[in-house]
Amino acid sequence: ETGVTQSPTHLIKTRGQQVTLRCSSQSGHNTVSWYQQALGQGPQFIFQYYREEENGRGNFPPRFSGLQFPNYSSELNVNALELDDSALYLCASSYGQGSFYEQYFGPGTRLTVT
Amino acid sequence: KNQVEQSPQSLIILEGKNCTLQCNYTVSPFSNLRWYKQDTGRGPVSLTIMTFSENTKSNGRYTATLDADTKQSSLHITASQLSDSASYICVVSPNQAGTALIFGKGTTLSVSS
Tens-digit pLDDT profile for chain A (114 aa)? Predict the structure, then answer.
């Protein structure tokens, strides 16, 4: 088990609604990355935050947004939910933003959009 | 286009047997290659990390190999156990600032008794 926690564990929302997912990073980590993992697929990079600033973004629309707080915890917000947003959302924390840093994943939040 | 492809897509083996999972990538240049184990509905857990200059890395019964010339990696699991049943994901980290990790789709391994 890593020291990364996510909440909630499961969530069911209706199309068009908004959702906020939360992630607490491992102690000492200043970087958080968010991923979307559809069933049977590998994780897809959404964005990364380093010291409260967005540091990189994958191919996701602007309705996916995030925040990182001074304690380095993070939120992922998704507006105007679509059925295809149903997935496992993973966050991962690391000591730094470089590609050689180990990323430690949380257990994920399972989002179902109906 | 940077891609990571894994084979086979799924695999069923008997407990105690060995198996080898394959990973081919087109990412260049790359910083490191990682293998993760992901139990169903859980986050991935790192097994090995190799830089481009390393050929092999072991973690208990897991041994990863890397051939940077042919852009291929493999994960060998020795004396499989029921708890090895999971998805194994190959991940390549490009050697470019601000570039995200590139994940394969994973190989689903089922170990039966």
Answer: 678 999 999 999 999 999 999 999 988 899 999 999 999 899 999 999 998 999 889 899 999 999 999 989 999 999 999 999 999 999 999 988 776 788 899 999 999 999
Nearest CA to CA, how far is B33 from chain A (Å)? 9
Q: Using CB atoms, which residue from A42, A45, A108 is nearest to B43?
A: A108
Identify whether the C-beta of residue A108 lies closer than 8 Å to the C-beta of residue A88. Answer: yes
Question: What CA–CA distance (Å, rounded) separates B76 from B84?
Answer: 12
User: Tokens 């998704």 label which residue?
Assistant: A78
Q: Do the chains contact at B105 and A41, CB–CB below 8 Å?
A: yes
Which of B103, B105, B108 has the highest number of chain A CBs within 10 A, making it the mutation to test binding with A? B103
